[in-house]
Design brief:
mainly beta, Maltoporin, Chain A, 5 helices, 32 strands
């Protein structure tokens, strides 16, 4: 397990994620049956504001186009975010999913106004470690969770060393969180799907800039009535400074985004969007032979996407897109791993039966050309794999040679989904997704049916049952270009079920769900067989994963200037041992609790605190003479307090400047991240306290 932690350590971030929990909302009278937003509730702008009032940035009623495609025409420029003043209404997310908008989480302590980090506080999300931006979601390991931006998969979502997500917050209109089951429009992951939708192009020039441990910004606006452009990016200036102060650490990251959109005619939009990211983290030590550099992360990825979308006569939309990509990882077990991607997709959305139903259908194909250069350590100072000892590195290098190879992979898929409105507030959505996978000489087919519904018992209470099958190839750690060759052992197949309820009590939103997810043929090197060698057998080891539990969330205003959030998960995640016994996952945490309070102090001042508590994982390890226990002792629980204070000034009629101090782990809490076991028992290994106050300066127009 220590080798796994070393391999994944670069992904750890110093700023913890947070978000608002799933939120039910009553649909406005003008929305289609079953439609309403999933935006969280906070203090209303006016006391007693009706629940049907739509937010300023709400999107047109009805589900978003398949694949997360951008709206076909520019929308009015959004007003500056109002963190506490949030009203309800607009578009309802698909049954079993929830939506976060940027304004809903901007002032939440610990997330640095980053929408992607918002998923940590969601019910059903279990952290691997505090501040570590990869999670188990309803028992699914990090490699079984997909992240997308406007329908394009993002291979590495967060920057190294406490950096932001690779997509700037200013480009994100909303984030849809689907813990499973998820809609048929998404696929190829046996766990959860998190998808961000980009902001519509503004009708006038807009810009934002920020200064934290990096400097970054976004500028976008119209060139003329038909053409709009956008450019943005981040650069970590703190990396070179840290390396100069602490020569034993080398760190750096950056990203870029650019977009050109053309609206040749009303209802038609052609868009070219490119984005990419670079991350580097290494440790440098002294030896008799000279400096020894151990690379923990050295990756980059790039995407170029061309997309055409058109509104159809009589309602509905059609879209087509082509994506080019390049992913690279260096010196993390392979000297160089590259993945060249060519993908195409197309689909349509049509209302039928006089608008009483909507059909969504689409196809997609992906060609992935992999190139792999194995590692050979010729000199003691030339390391191309993480690991404390030469033996650890040799095992990882050998595993990589067995797992990865030069090849061309082909994936072809299609989906069909129909939303049937049964009444003013109820709907049912049957769907089917089929995917064909081919890699080396292996081929397999996934047939994944899905069924979800939302049934309103009255204007306050709705029930949401869902069941689905989700399939995926064997998964590795979420590193660019490192995809296991072939389909050894067949596909992972997950049966996902949930039964939820949404309750609106005036301005207070309450959600709850019971769920169970069983994954057959699960690959989970992190959550299974802690303590065994990090070889190919561990990465390819198959088991049955079974997770079940209860999720509860509530949020809303306590008074006009104060809002609250509570998110709680009670769950059990197990794995089937080789001898047939059922044992807990290495990162099974029975209780996960988030409690947040947000304050409007007046005169542009905002403040917030967030309490984070989760119980310990099993204090157990597998090794020679040791087998996993069915009911092992647990490591100590972890608690931390995050705090945030911000001030915002208006500059003229449309510009603003803000300063925020975000303090993660103000309690200076240490955390157990691993255990070492012998015949005499297990000893916890702690880290921290990791507690760094982050000062952010932002401005926009």
């Amino acid at each position: 397990m220590r080798a796994v932690c070393a391999a994944l350590a670069p992904f750890a971030t110093l700023g913890s994620s947070a978000a608002l929990a799933q939120t039910p909302e009553a649909p406005p009278a003008s929305a289609p049956p079953g439609a309403a937003t999933g935006s969280p509730v906070a203090a209303p702008a006016t006391p007693g504001a009706p629940a049907s009032t739509a937010p300023a940035d709400s999107t047109p009623p009805g589900p978003p186009p398949a694949g997360g495609d951008t709206p076909p025409a520019p929308a009015p420029p959004p007003e500056p975010p109002k963190p506490i003043d949030v009203t309800i209404g607009g578009e309802k997310p698909a049954a079993g999913t929830s939506t976060l908008r940027r304004k809903d989480i901007r002032e939440m302590p610990g997330i640095l106004a980053d929408p992607f980090r918002a998923i940590e506080v969601k019910s059903g999300v279990t952290p691997t470690a505090s501040g570590f931006p990869y999670f188990f979601i309803r028992g699914a390991p990090p490699g079984n969770i997909g992240y997308f931006f406007d329908g394009v998969q993002v291979p590495l979502l967060f920057h190294v060393g406490g950096g932001p997500s690779v997509i700037p917050a200013a480009l994100v209109q909303k984030v849809t969180f689907a813990p499973g089951p998820y809609p048929a429009t998404s696929g190829r992951f046996a766990g959860a799907v998190v998808e961000a939708t980009s902001t519509p192009p503004p009708l006038e020039w807009k810009g934002e800039a920020g200064l934290r441990l990096d400097v970054g910004g976004v500028v976008q606006g119209p060139v003329n009535e038909r053409v709009d452009v956008m450019a943005g990016g981040h650069y970590s200036y703190a990396g070179p400074i840290l390396s100069a102060i602490v020569p034993s650490v080398g760190v750096g990251y950056g990203d870029y985004q650019a977009r050109v959109g053309v609206t040749p005619s009303p209802g038609t939009r052609l868009q070219v969007f490119g984005f990419g990211s670079y991350d580097y983290l290494a440790l440098v030590s002294k030896s008799a032979q000279g400096d020894v550099k151990t690379t923990l992360l050295d990756t980059d990825f790039h995407r170029a996407d061309v997309k055409l979308q058109r509104d159809l006569d009589g309602g509905g939309r059609a879209f087509a897109g082509v994506t080019l990509g390049l992913d690279q990882s260096r010196n993390v077990g392979a000297r160089l791993a590259q993945q060249y991607k060519l993908a195409a997709r197309g689909g349509l959305e049509l209302p039928i039966f006089g608008g009483r139903a909507t059909v969504r259908a689409g196809v997609d194909v992906s060609l992935d050309d992999f190139h792999f250069q194995p590692c050979v350590e010729v000199l003691a100072t030339d390391r191309c794999a993480p690991g404390d000892t030469r033996d650890d590195r040799d095992k990882l290098i050998k595993a990589y040679k067995e797992l990865f190879s030069n090849r061309l992979d082909t994936t072809v898929g299609g989906y069909l989904e129909t939303e049937i409105r049964l009444g003013e507030r109820s709907s049912i959505v049957p769907g089917l997704r089929v995917d064909y996978y081919r890699s080396l000489r292996d081929a397999d087919v996934a047939i994944d049916p899905k069924l979800a519904g939302r049934f309103a018992l009255n204007e306050h209470l709705a029930l949401i049952p869902a069941i689905a099958v989700a399939s995926q190839r064997p998964a590795f750690a979420p590193l660019p270009a490192l995809v296991i060759a072939g389909i050894p052992g067949g596909l992972q197949r997950s049966l996902q079920t949930s039964f939820g309820a949404e309750l609106q009590l005036g301005p207070i939103a309450v959600v709850g769900a019971v769920f169970r997810q069983v994954t057959f043929g699960l690959t989970d090197a992190i959550g299974t067989n802690r303590g065994t060698d990090l070889d190919a057998d561990r990465f390819l080891h198959r088991t049955t994963g079974d997770t079940y539990g209860l999720e509860i969330g509530a949020q809303g205003p306590l008074r006009r200037d104060m809002a609250f959030l509570i998110s709680y998960t009670l769950s059990r995640a197990t794995r089937r041992a080789d001898d047939g016994r059922t044992v807990p996952s290495a990162y099974d945490r029975t209780h996960v609790l988030h409690v947040a309070l947000l304050y409007d102090l007046g005169n542009g001042w905002r403040a917030g605190v967030r309490h984070v508590l989760y119980s310990g994982f099993p204090a157990d390890e597998v090794g020679p003479g040791r087998v996993a226990a069915e009911d092992p002792a647990r490591v100590a629980p972890f608690y931390r307090l995050d705090a945030r204070l911000s001030k915002r000034w208006a500059v003229g009629k449309k510009s603003w400047v803000s300063v925020a101090l975000d303090f993660q782990n103000a309690t200076l809490s240490k955390e157990v991240f691993d255990v070492t076991c012998t015949a005499n028992g297990c000893t916890p290994r702690t880290i921290g306290p990791i507690s760094i106050p982050a000062l952010a300066i932002e401005a926009g127009f």
